[in-house]
Amino acid sequence: MKIILWIVRVAVGLLFIFSGVVKANDPLGLTYKMNEFFEVWNMSFMIKYSLGLSIAMIAFEITSGMAMIVGNWFRFYAALLLALNIFFTFLTGYVLYSGKIKECGCFGDCIKISNTATFNKDLILTAAVLFLNIFRYRVFPIFNKLWINAAIVGAAALFAFGFQYHVLHHLPYHDCLPYKVGNNIWQKMQPEPGATPAEYATTFVYEKNGVKQNFTAENYPWKDPTWKFVSSESVEVKPATGQSEIHDFTLTDSNNNDQTEAILTAKGYTFIWFLREPAKAHLDNMDVLRGLMEKTAAMNIPFYVACSAGRDICITYQEAWNMKHIPFMTIDGTVSKTVMRTNPGLMLLKDGVVVGKWSYLDYPTTLNLN
Question: Any idea which fold 260-359 has?
Answer without folding.
Answer: Glutaredoxin (3.40.30)
